[in-house]
Amino acid sequence: MQFKPAVTALVTAIALASLLSGCKKEEAAPAAPPPQVGVVTLKTQAFTLTSELPGRTSAFRVAEVRPQVNGIILKRLFKEGADVKAGQQLYQIDPAVYEATLKSAEANLRSTKSIADRYKQLVDEQAVSRQEYDTAVANRLESEANLQTAQINVRYTKVYAPISGRIGRSSVTEGALVSNGQTDAMATIQQLDPIYVDVTQSSVELLQLRRELESGRLQKAGENAAMVKLTLEDGSQYPHEGKLEFSEVSVDQTTGSVTLRAVFPNPDHTLLPGMFVHAQLQGRSEQRGNPGAATRRDPRPQGHADRHGGGRRQQSRTAPAQGQPHRRQPVVDRRRAQGRRSLDHRRFAIRTAGG
Q1: Whether the predicted pLDDT of 186 surpasses 90
Q2: What region does 115 belong to: left with phi over 0, alpha with psi -120 to 50, or beta?
Q3: Phi and psi for 203 in degrees, rounded to 5?
Q4: What whole-number distance in Å separates Cα of residue 313 and Cα of residue 268?
Q5: pLDDT digit string (tens) for 15-65?
Q6: Omega before 194 within 30 of 0, i.e. cis
Q7: How far, in Å, are 136, 210, 230 from residue 271 at the CA level?
């Protein structure tokens, strides 16, 4: 019982010796190397402000080919999907009936003209009445009109292309019966060069675009028109530039929207009617810095951008990783954290030694 204080003192001395030896080892640990810091100088560079407008393409001209006389289709003289020229023959309708009508009209005209010429001489000699002569002249004029109608019907048996463009599929084949005034078109021709891009915007956005055009923030392409570029459905850039016309004069009362129309050259027929595209209005160039190059990433990863000036750091910002939400991260001083862990270790050792 007399040795208990001595044992307690001995245990305490051993614990203090162990603690002091641990502190010496910690003090003897080599210092960590200084962190490597990269420096990026920010410079201004030119960039262009753009406004993106979704829209759809539509043909510059559309012509539906329909028959103007009744008859049977004898020939189809074009290839579906090919380019045709204005005035090119597309179909041949059976002309037999109309050619016969033409010959009859020619004979009738010859007869009425002969009678009218004979009556002209007789009326001067008062051999026939003036009324008979007037009737003969009227018959001759009617015969001339019938001949002209017969000639037109014969010409209409050859169906020609009204415009130049690309022709679609044919809805009739050889042997089909067509009639004047039918609802269905035999084929459709669309002019694709140039081509329209119809853009639908609200009336508020239209007013904003007009103000930007008048203030010079948008590149002009003529009177009341803006320069515009095009992005295709697959994300590729259309190589030709167009112009957007601010020519719509009315607003749709049900939707409050306005349809704007842009015109693009289409020499290679890359754009087809009905394609969904994005029209980009080109604004003026401005000068701004590019802070992206001065952003560093840590292992979490988080982005940090430090601004330096006058030999010391002025500001540090934390940027979230790409695709990650922005969250504020607490700043932790490593030296304070190590000091807390060392102090807790000492308290634990002394408490163990003291029993």
Answers
A1: yes
A2: alpha
A3: -65, -30
A4: 57
A5: 656 655 555 444 555 667 777 766 666 666 554 556 678 899 999 999 999
A6: yes
A7: 62, 27, 10
Tally of CB atoms within 10 A around 313 = 11
**Residue 199 CA from chain centroid, whole number:** 8
Q: State the Cα angle at 6 between 5 and 10, rounded to 5°.
A: 115
Q: How far apart are CA 190 and CA 166, in angstroms?
A: 5
3-state helix, strand, coil in the chain (%, to 5): 35, 30, 35
Closest CA to 78 of 192, 160, 181, 155: 160
Phi-psi label, residue 116: left if phi above 0, alpha if psi -120 to 50, beta otherwise: alpha
User: Residue 276 burial by CB count (10 A; 0-12/13-18/19+): exposed, middle or buried?
Assistant: exposed
Taking a C-beta distance cutoff of 8 angstroms, is the pair 155, 95 a contact?
A: no
Asked whether 296 and 38 are in contact (CB, 8 A), the reply is yes
Identify the CA nearest to 246 among candidates 300, 203, 215, 294.
203
Helix pair angle (334-353, 4-28), 10° resolution:
160
- 161-172: per-residue pLDDT in tens? 999 999 999 999
